[in-house]
Write a structure and sequence with these properties.
With 276 residues, the chain is an alpha+beta fold. The chain has helices spanning 2-36, 49-58, 69-87, 94-104, 239-247; strands at residues 113-123, 126-136, 142-152, 155-162, 171-175, 183-191, 198-206, 211-221, 224-228, 231-236, 254-262, 265-274.
């Protein structure tokens, strides 16, 4: 009886060993077969510019803003190379430039989005042309570029390139004040990701040689900006105060800051509370 038990036990152990061997052999065979398969080749970018811009924009998905530099720079360079060639012998309107930007970014697909913004403004016998866009792959992560071109006697060349405050879209407001000799304009926009959009704005100056920043604000909670003559008015909420007052079912105060346009930039004149 004991011998029968030992025999059955030996058979069971032998069966288990055989089963393990079969699993190991099967797994090894599957790994070997997978290794022999030709590796899938990474698809090269398309030949056409809209296809290339879509190809590189698509690679921004899943990247943190801090990791997006190489791809966003590649997109910026493709855009600039095209615009420099396209605009060289033209005197376009702002609408013409915006449409050209829309055409080259036409293949960009959701969740990627691109919002072009352009202008054409006279200055000292020339035409200054702005070509900008914001490129986003989430509601929060966005990069932007603004290129300034100068047109004279039917010929246009690139004068300057700047990257406005990250995560904001691109809009323009122009400053025309007697006694200000350089060309001044605001690039401003709004950041998403909180209960209220946050205003970001930079005042730029172009003197015919160099584009530089004279003043900026960032992350202005529910901020709204208006330019009236030589004054700039910014209305805003204080985020912590707003959250606290709303939690207690009270109307939070709103604030208004008034700036005067000065040779060196903007000078704060007053800041006070206004009714909500």
């Amino acid at each position: 009886m004991l011998s029968n038990f030992c025999s059955r036990s030996q058979i069971a152990r032998g069966f288990a060993v055989a089963l393990v061997l079969l699993v190991v052999i099967g797994t090894f065979g599957a790994v070997l077969a997978e290794a022999k398969k030709p590796k899938k080749q990474k698809q090269p970018p398309p030949e056409d510019l809209p296809g290339k811009l879509d190809y590189y924009s698509w690679q921004l998905r899943g990247l943190h803003l801090d990791e997006s530099g190489p791809r966003s720079l590649e997109i910026q360079n493709l855009m600039l190379d095209h615009l420099k060639s396209w605009i060289a012998d033209r005197t376009p309107t702002g609408v013409d430039v915006r449409r050209e930007l829309e055409n080259i970014f036409i293949k960009v697909r959701y969740p990627i989005n691109c919002k072009p913004a352009a202008f054409a403004e006279p200055w000292k016998g020339t035409l200054l042309i702005g070509a900008g866009y914001s490129l986003g792959w989430t509601d929060i992560d966005r990069v932007n570029t603004v290129a300034l071109f100068e047109n004279r006697e039917g010929k246009t060349h690139l004068a300057a390139v700047t990257n406005f405050i990250p995560r904001a879209d691109v809009r323009y407001e122009f400053v025309k004040v007697p006694g200000i000799d350089d060309f001044r304009f605001f690039v401003y926009g709004f950041k998403l990701g909180k209960s209220h959009p946050r205003l970001a704005a930079v005042l730029y100056s172009y003197d015919g040689q160099m584009l530089k920043s004279l003043w900026q604000i960032d992350d202005v909670y529910d901020g709204k900006m208006t330019v009236e003559g030589d004054q700039v008015v910014v209305r805003f909420l204080k985020e912590d105060e707003y959250i606290r007052e709303v939690a207690h079912r009270r109307k939070p105060p709103r604030y208004e800051a008034t700036y005067k346009i000065a040779p060196q930039g903007l000078e704060l004149q007053t800041q006070h509370e206004i009714p909500f």
